Amino acid sequence: MARDIKQLHPRLQTKVEELKALCAKEGLAIGIGECFRSVAEQDALYAQGRTTAGNIVTNAKGSSYSSQHQWGIAVDFFKNVKGHEYDDAAFFSRVGALAKSIGLGWGGDWTGFVDRPHLYLPDWGSTASKLKEQYGTFENFKKTWTQSSETPKQEAAQPSTYTGNSIVEYLNSVGKPSDFASRTQYAAQYGISNYKGTAEQNLKLLALMRGDSSAPETQPTAPAPKPTKSLEDWAEEVRAGKHGTGHENRKASLKKAGCTYDYEKVRAKVNELCGVKTSTKPASIYYPKYTGNSYGIDTVFAAIGIPEAFLGKPKNRKSIAEKNGVKNYKGTQDQNLYLIGLAKQGKLKKV
Questions:
Q1: Domain range for residue 250?
Q2: Is the domain of 115 the same as that of 184?
Q3: Whether residues 18 and 118 fall in one domain
Q4: Three-state DSSP class for 278?
């Protein structure tokens, strides 16, 4: 089977290199396996476990062009450790999460035939059906490939019966992926830079994808108003007792009064005015970076100094998970791998 990524869609080639770099940063030994497959190669793989030796690994015949590999939009990966290429579930979950973070689809999310080593460009959904319907043959599809490794060729507006103002609903109505990663790619296609998913950007993208030449221009964000009081003014008010006692009460009172300075800066200025020396280096909001190789959540947490009270059970780790954006934390493998990934980057926020 072919393992030459140069046979893949140009944008997928770029994504593979990006994923390899992310894996290298986390010490994940990723290897690239199956890339493009010909009809004969796909038929040989389909025969495995049916008319030839081995286990069944695909339900797609080569003559049906039902495999994404036959269209150059899919690639398989493995753990590049001899004897353990496919036996590390945590490895595949973490690589799958990293792949999704850069806009790729992951076969580990499929509910029928789960394919954890499988990654693909999600522009045409999770199967090859839309490609077969739109292009008929791989040769026709390949003619649309551009040499740009960043974004696909801008397509003409597609007809839709949807008349509302939701970009997500519009994309669903024309059969396109509507997740944030896909919308970021569409925005780049249509010249919308620094896409953040704001209402203004979404309305402009919607108009452009509909073919509306009168799409509104996005306006730069207005600069924040300059503070009416100096840092020293606010500090003097705190010294005078105007904002009560206790850090939480003072912080709330300052915010209500319109103070735009960070509370720690106000606090430092108060100490300065009172002649109290304070450290000029702010305390880190993150736990230390984890540099080990474990994927056990308690092992990682303990290694970076998280107290024992937060270990052992999901309910103990819940406050840390919520602090780091994990809602409804249950201690699932994907949730834990996400937290471990933050710890490996030194970006796990303290509670």
A1: 231-273
A2: no
A3: yes
A4: coil
